[in-house]
Design brief:
The complex is a heterodimer of chains A (307) and B (264).
Chain A: H1 3-33, H2 41-57, H3 62-85, H4 91-109, E1 115-117, H5 140-158, H6 162-172, H7 174-179, H8 184-210, E2 212-214, H9 221-236, H10 243-266, H11 274-306
Antiparallel strand pairs in A: 1-2
Chain B: E1 2-11, E2 19-29, E3 34-39, H1 45-53, E4 60-65, E5 68-69, H2 75-78, E6 82-85, H3 99-107, H4 121-134, H5 151-164, E7 169-173, H6 181-198, E8 202-205, H7 209-214, E9 218-223, E10 226-232, H8 233-237, H9 241-252, H10 256-263
Parallel strand pairs in B: 3-8, 3-9, 6-7, 7-8
Antiparallel strand pairs in B: 1-2, 1-4, 4-5, 9-10
Classes of the chains: A mainly alpha (307), B alpha/beta (264).
């Protein structure tokens, strides 16, 4: 156990965390703002990369490829939205169905191969792991900070608009939203499209970062996203009340998640057990609000007996 | 004007839990009518309000508001014409959003919501003045999250939201039932004031016979999904609780014993 090996791994963890932080912001929008547990992201987290890599291999411009990735993600979100709002399928199942369908679609996009590489020396990529220790503007950490900042500004603006407010109202109190004339089904579809578009963007960036896209890239993405959201609420929940700051906290949460993972691996955990650990940690934190509520009720009923 | 024409609704048809909730309801209201609705549990009071609001499709009948047939419109589209306050104070407002955000959403009821800024400076000033008229001190708390307000404050706010864009019809569904008596009285007075000020056509469901008599210019009583009593004008003004109880007994027969306890 050499501390310098851990330290040398930190820039990579930070860059990865920032990229997955974009995805976590997408998860935050559905899970927290829209109150919709959207499992589509496990599929979209590979779709974005697949679209981006395949387009670029075939000569498409970087920015066009990124835009197409986002659009592909939005389409996936729309499908989940239609499953839920037009076909009456429960949220979680809607997401699972799209996610499953996306597995085939992602393979199809990638020419029925499980993975596709894209070499940073041959293509003009926005972010690459190769530059993670450069002290220059091509360092993925700087670029991701900029991308995150722009995304947060755009989202902050959007959720302050009339449409954005109606999305928030839908997630907060559907009954009230309907009574105020808001088309809640439409809001859910829009929210799912935005969220999955963001996740696909993250996916496209991550594929570039690691120089390849894998059909299993998104497996467990929802758990990583939730972990980032939970870490952010535990650490910054009391501190940040502004929507923009909350989104920033989610991004920081993702970075912290990757640093913790790095530390755990450095301590000697078998890489294959990582997902087990992630799932257990997230389950534990998701249980906390439930336990505290129960504990309060117990206290109250005890108090009543004594009275 | 509101016209309910032979409205019928049965919940869980052809099952053990079948319940005829509305059994041919006819009602005509003029603009500016303030109608109070009473009746025992399961009489169909809230159901009639939900039918008008469009929570589910009717089995039969038509609903016409100011000459426009709204029977086929879904809930959120009807909201363009209808303001609503619910029994549960949590239901009418978005708790995680600020007071001014809730008001801004209500202000755009019936309008297209696009990418314009969700709340303008002029609006804020207007909300401040409106909140001041409630006398609850909310005018200085525009950016407070609504979930931090008390039940009475939330109902007062919901009432303001329901009438911010003047609705063609206001539906009050036992909106004071969940409040303590003093707060309930305040909210009721406030409702009365707003209704009179804007001459709003209003349907108010209540459990309280005294309130039903004290407010509005017309009173209807429901029983087993039908309107069994319809009193307005001078007759309504002279109405007392015992008279109403008597009428209720006549109309509903032997169920009086249980319902008297509920209604008194």
């Amino acid at each position: 156990m050499n501390i310098s090996s851990l330290i040398s791994a930190l820039p990579g963890a930070t860059a990865q965390g920032l990229i997955w932080g974009i995805m976590a912001i997408g998860v935050y929008l559905t899970y927290k703002v829209l109150d919709f547990s959207d499992l589509t992201v496990d599929g979209t987290m590979a779709t974005g990369g697949a679209v981006c890599v395949m387009l670029m291999i075939n000569g498409t411009n970087l920015w066009v490829a990124l835009l197409c990735s986002v659009l592909a993600g939005m389409a996936a979100g729309l499908v989940t939205g239609i499953f839920h709002t037009k076909m009456g399928i429960p949220p979680i199942l809607s997401g699972i169905l799209t996610q499953l369908a996306l597995y085939s679609i992602n393979l199809w996009i990638m020419g029925f191969k499980a993975n596709q590489g894209i070499n940073v020396t041959k293509y003009n990529l926005l972010v690459s792991a190769r530059n993670v220790r450069h002290l220059g503007m091509d360092n993925p950490i700087f670029i991701m900070l900029a991308v995150t900042a722009i995304l947060i500004v755009v989202l902050y603006w959007f959720f302050g608009t009339e449409l954005g407010s109606s999305l928030r109202a839908t997630g907060c109190n559907e009954q009230m939203a309907k009574a105020q004339g808001i088309n809640v089904d439409r809001c859910k579809r829009i929210g799912l499209m935005i969220s999955n578009g963001i996740v696909a963007l993250s996916s496209a960036l991550f594929a570039q970062y690691q120089g390849s896209v894998d059909v299993n890239m998104g497996r467990g993405a929802i758990v990583i996203g939730l972990a980032a959201v939970i870490i952010s609420t535990v650490i910054f929940g009391k501190l940040f009340h502004n929507f923009g700051l909350k989104l920033m906290a989610v991004s920081i949460g993702a970075v912290l998640y990757y640093i913790v993972i790095q530390v755990v691996l450095w301590l000697g955990l078998n890489t294959n057990l990582l997902k087990l650990l992630s799932a257990l940690v997230v389950a534990f934190f998701l249980a906390i609000p439930y336990w505290t509520k129960n504990a309060k009720n117990m206290k109250r009923s005890k108090g009543a007996k004594h009275a | 004007m509101l016209d309910l024409i032979n409205i019928r609704k049965t919940f869980n048809p052809h099952t053990i839990n079948e319940k005829v909730a509305l059994n041919g309801v006819n009602l005509h209201m003029e603009s500016g009518d303030f109608v109070t609705v009473i009746g025992g549990n399961g009489a169909g009071k809230s159901t009639i309000l939900n039918a008008i609001a469009g929570l589910w499709p009717l089995d039969e009948g038509r609903i016409v508001i100011d000459g426009q047939d709204v029977t086929g419109l879904c809930e959120y589209k009807r909201a363009a014409f209808i303001g609503r306050v619910f029994q549960d104070p949590m239901m009418g407002t978005a708790g995680n959003m600020q007071i001014e955000e809730n008001l801004a959403i209500a202000k755009r009821r019936g309008q297209k919501r696009g990418l314009c800024i969700g709340i303008t400076k002029e609006e804020r000033q207007q909300y401040k003045e409106m909140l001041a008229t409630l006398g609850l001190g909310l005018e200085d708390r525009l950016t407070t999250k609504v979930k931090l307000l008390s039940g009475g404050q939330r109902q007062a706010l919901t009432l303001l939201m329901a009438t911010l864009t003047k609705p063609k019809l206001l539906l009050l569904d036992e909106h004071t039932a969940a409040l303590d008596p003093r707060t309930a009285g305040k909210v009721l007075e406030l409702s009365n004031r707003i209704v009179k000020e804007h001459r709003l056509m209003t349907l108010m469901v209540t459990h309280n016979m005294k309130d039903a008599i004290a407010y509005g210019n017309r009173l209807i009583m429901m029983h087993q999904g039908r309107i069994i009593l319809d009193i307005s004008g001078d007759e309504k003004r002279c109405l007392t609780v015992p008279v109403l109880m008597n009428e209720f007994a006549k109309a509903s027969g032997d169920e009086l014993a249980t319902d008297r306890a509920l209604l008194s």
